[in-house]
Design brief:
297 residues, alpha+beta, Jelly Rolls, 2 domains, 4-stranded antiparallel beta sheet, 10 strands, 40% helix, 19% strand
Length: 297
């Protein structure tokens, strides 16, 4: 628990206490941990926790969850989530197994249109999109001991996408800045369309609006409702895709110029300036640090 910086509550668990934890860190710095233990409580705040978003899926056992307002009984497969530094309590009342994920805010905030609005919550794992997400997390837990950090790369990307999709489905303010469920689903659909078109250097507001069957003005208002703009969101997604490729051994044979062009940038000089402005370091220096060696253009 100290390794994961989880705050331990005062639940009077039966003796003797037993526990085991298996941990793996992904390339983006996400902690994945499968925990098995006798009854205990995880509650309160740990001042030493870094800024992160946590996810928990109950694999086995009985538990209740307090989200700061109400207490609910969990079923196996249910998913809990929330930002660090927010009060919540997970009381595990029987022997249990669970998967715990801690994702640095920098790995998730670029996909949340209103990241500061994220609060503690729960996704039911019995049906719908929550069931699909739960299946991914449970499968990851079962295979964790057989995976390498690099093999977690597609998992961490999928976790991010599923979290955003589930927040939109739940009408969370983190997905849409407090807008209604219909608008949340609409903006999420637009963003997913943009993900498939990022490599097109000519991608425009008009093109995305036409693909969605709405006017450019309506599309601008949709982004404005989340305190965003089309162009800012488009650039941030392209930069993030480039950042992921720069840190991936799979793309080590590609030059920095090839990476920026494959995600829709028109010039390497413009890309380098935008990358340094966003991440505080040049693309070359970022790749060198991520891969442990220098890479040429």
């Amino acid at each position: 628990m100290q390794r994961l910086r989880l705050p331990i509550g005062r639940f009077a668990a039966p003796e003797p206490f037993q526990a085991s934890v298996s941990c793996l860190v992904s390339p983006l710095g996400m902690d994945f941990a499968v925990m098995s233990a006798t009854p205990q409580e995880i509650s309160g705040r740990n001042p030493n926790q870094p800024a992160a978003v946590w996810l928990v899926v109950l694999l086995e056992g009985e538990a209740t969850f307090w989200d700061g307002v109400a207490t609910t009984t969990l079923s196996t497969g249910d998913i809990l989530y929330g930002p660090t530094g927010t009060d919540a309590a997970l009381r595990l009342t029987s022997n249990f197994r669970m998967l715990f994920i801690s994702a640095p805010r920098v790995a998730l905030d670029h996909r949340l249109l209103a990241p500061m609005a994220l609060r503690v919550g729960r996704f039911g794992g019995a049906k719908g999109l929550g069931h699909v997400f739960s299946g991914l997390l449970r499968g990851t837990a079962e295979a964790l001991l057989d995976l390498s950090s690099e093999q977690l790369r597609p998992v961490e990307l999928a976790v991010t996408e599923f979290l955003v999709a589930n927040l939109a489905a739940e009408d969370s303010p983190a997905a849409l800045g407090g807008a209604g469920a219909a608008r949340a689903a609409h903006l999420h659909r637009v963003c997913q369309t943009m993900e498939t078109l990022l490599s097109d250097p000519e991608l425009s507001l008009e093109q995305v609006a036409a693909a969605d069957g709405i006017s450019t003005r309506s599309l601008q208002k949709l982004f404005a409702s989340a305190n965003q703009s089309f162009s800012t969101y488009l650039r941030s997604r392209r930069l993030e895709r480039c950042r992921l490729d720069l840190s991936s051994p799979i793309c080590a044979s590609l030059s920095i110029s090839e990476i920026c062009f494959r995600w829709g940038f028109n010039g390497s000089a413009h890309f380098s300036r935008a990358f340094k402005e966003r991440y505080g370091v040049s693309p070359r220096a970022y790749r060198r640090a991520a891969l442990g060696k220098d890479e040429g253009e």
